[in-house]
User: What shape does this take?
Amino acid sequence: MTRVERNSMIAGIIGLALFVIGVLLEPRQALTSYVFAYATVFTIVLGALMQLMMSQVTGARWFTVMRRIALGISGAMPAVVVLALPLFIGVPAIYSWASPATLPHATQSLVERKVAWLNVPFFVVRGVVYLAAWVLIDGIVRHWSLQLDGLVGMAAADATRRMRRLSALGLVVVGLTMTFASFDWLMSLDPTWYSTVYGVYVFAGGFLAALGLIAVIGRVASRAGASLDGAVTPEHFGALGKLQLTFVIFWAYIAFSQFLIIWIGDIPLDSSWYVTRGSGSWGTLALIVVIGQFAIPFLVLLPRTTKRRPALMWLLGILLLVMHVLDVYWLVLPALHPTGIAFSWLDIATLLVVGGFATSFASRRARAVRALPVGDPYLAPSMRYSEP
Amino acid sequence: MREIRLLAEFDSATKLVAAVERLRQEKYHDLETYAPFDIPELDAALGLRRPRLGWFVLAVGIAGLAAAYGIQWWANVHSYPLNVGGRPVHAVPAFIPATFEGTVLAASLASFFGVLLVLRLPRLWSIEDEVPGFYRASIDRFWLAMHTFASEHDRAHAEQMLRESGALRTITRMGSEWQSVGRALVIAIALVVGVSACSDRIGQGFDWKRMRRQPRYQPYGSSRFFGDSMAMRTPPAGTVPREAAPPTFDTTAADATTLLRGGDRFHVFCAVCHGVAGNGNSVVGDNMRPTPPPALTSAPVVRLSATQLYAVITDGFGRMPAYAAQLTPADRWAVVTYVQMLQRGAPR
Assistant: This one.
């Protein structure tokens, strides 16, 4: 058992104990915090899976040396599936649409019209479908990726081509299921509000955090004597930085599109979501996220030289991860505390549960995997990669 | 500035890189290389740094941002404030899309024109263009160019070193790029002045209508001047046209000049439909289906006499229009001669 594996396992167990106490003391707070923690983690894991498939579809050679890092992150998928359990068990406590009778009269009639979609059995069935799709796709990607280690020549080329085709299909499936999962698990926290771009927003944040995590692990793994020493160079960090810059802008673009349309429409039902999240301490948090997830990374990633410094990319990766946590916090918790941030010890405890167990499981799985995809025909060009 | 250019041709990239390294050791820094493909070692050998265009692009991008935001602010807040459904006049979120576009537009234009500026493009002419064989720099040869030498001795020394580095040949050229740039500038200014002299306000600034309304007769118009009220006059009896058609022409006795003239006219007027070889193969002919122009080498056409061919050209036949207006009688006979030559090998 490695140090990471053990420590994160301990963190998970401590978190779980606290979470159980929390559920007994204040179930609504504990379970809503759990939604926040769960959404933070599952978006990162899915982001890594998407980057895996995206690099296959686009034929990104620079990423081949870093692919096993993404594979390591997406290896947490089975843990993510198991960790979804409290979400399904806690539906009545988390989601107000599960008990429309308790809602104010005005919203009640609106929510009752959505009952065909928003009802507990269908919610659980959909959730099982999403999780099954993810674990299946992750399983196939992982299986084929590991199988490639033992192949050479034409067999390796064929396997790569097959993986590319699967990835194209997988991206569509994950894209759709992730959109619907974020509608179900996050957007329905405010059952009267809706935004069609919401799923893309959640994806963009998670994908960006996954790229940040890849940079963090990449930096740690490429230090002298580590598993990727000599394979991952500043050239690769430069390319990763470009991708991060793209998605920093993409995230800001999506976030702003959603905001602008609602702001300019100025319809109470739509804008109430932003009024809650834009006033008081929630507004301050929103500003922090905009600065930390857009302004700072944008300016840092703009020059060529900064992207090529592994240490700086490590720091930026940490920033992106922290901002992703705050971003999801800002999405989820106002549903419970509309008047302002009400920090709870359960926010940390739930993050320990989901983050700890997922990390522990992923690193345990990564132990059995080679640090580089040795059978990949593009590995040699990837190691030689130099930024244009 | 009149410059001396020393050019050297190499047959391998390795030799070129070695020559560049050697020259730079000897403090020759004004080097330019031409190669058919990218040579990564060459950048290091030439001591090329990364371009600093980024700063320029950033500055222009920020200027674009400020300009786009400024225009919107000026229009919506200062010049023409409108209350749109109670939204603030200074509506920051609504200004952002255009501000973003303005930034991107300015930055991309800056990088596009910045590259042209840094590379001094477009280059209409350079001394290298006049060196025979220089074009092989884009096929299989590697060229090195140097200019601005301190002295003739300096130049000779460089030439010596190029020879030692394995240059196939060295060439010294004199000239000035500024001459050609100056020439292009003069022409451009003249064009601008010339074009700007034309007014586009037809009928307003200049009286074009007066030119259109000249006193003249329209075809088939009536005339009050002549007794028979006809505007078009019949030529007096016995008038001979300046180009009278020779009634007959011995095509078999035609000289080479006639044949060449016939071929020339044939290619201009006939080949578009009947094909260059007269066999009816042409794009226009294909599009005239179901009644395509016949092959001039086909039996029915071959059987026609020279006079009949002449008549067809003069008056037209079927879908073929008359060519009397385009071809003088002598030219028509020349074309007939050429057509008969094409028909020589055809079965009768």
